[in-house]
Structure formats: structure tokens, C-alpha cells
Specification:
This protein is mostly helical and 104 residues long. The protein contains 3 helices and no strands.
């Protein structure tokens, strides 16, 4: 799968826009926090984290667009559990009995 240059450009533009917004909002909240607004300290630290998350997601989108997906974790093996199967059979029987009871 080849990358679409328009999509790559859009993703990069989105990343840049997100960084500009997060940086300016972080700067704004930092100046408010330094002037005495204590609640702004939370936002002063939140905006940079949102910017980092934007970079992370943008890189994943670019990798997906280029067809180079990140490594997946190995899938867990599914083992047959005899007790679980017995429990599911019991529930199915109870459900069937309830349905028959309601039909009468």
C-alpha cells in the first residue's frame, strides 16, 4: 500500500495545528498561573501533555498511512476451561427453561 501524499499532508498539518494550539494555550495558562490564578497551574501542565499525545497519535496515523504498522503485542492463547463451559451450559439450560416457562 503506497501512501497518499494528500493524506500525509493533512496529517502533518493537523499535527502542526495541534502543537500551535497546545503551545499557545499552555503559555496562556502559565502566564495566568504566575499572576495568581491557582487553577491555571493544572491547565499549564495539561496542555503540554495534550500536545505530546497529539504527536503520538499523529505518528501512529502517519505510520498507518505509510503501511508500516507498529509491532503488535503477542495475542494471548485461549485455553479451554472445562468449568467455564459447564457453567455456560447450565446458564443456557436455565435460560431455555425460563423462556419455556414464560411461553406457557
Amino acid at each position: 500500500m503506497s501512501e497518499n501524499p494528500k493524506n500525509v499532508l493533512r496529517i502533518k498539518f493537523g499535527i502542526a495545528l495541534a502543537l500551535i494550539i497546545c503551545a499557545s494555550a499552555g503559555w496562556f495558562e502559565t502566564t495566568r498561573a504566575l499572576s495568581g490564578n491557582t487553577l491555571s497551574w493544572v491547565y499549564a501542565f495539561e496542555w503540554p501533555f495534550l500536545g505530546i499525545y497529539g504527536i503520538f497519535m499523529g505518528r501512529r496515523l502517519l505510520a498507518e498511512e505509510r503501511g508500516t504498522r507498529p509491532k503488535k503485542l503477542p495475542e494471548a492463547e485461549i485455553h479451554s476451561d472445562e468449568r467455564l463451559e459447564e457453567w455456560n451450559r447450565y446458564l443456557a439450560e436455565r435460560h431455555k427453561a425460563d423462556q419455556e416457562k414464560r411461553a406457557d
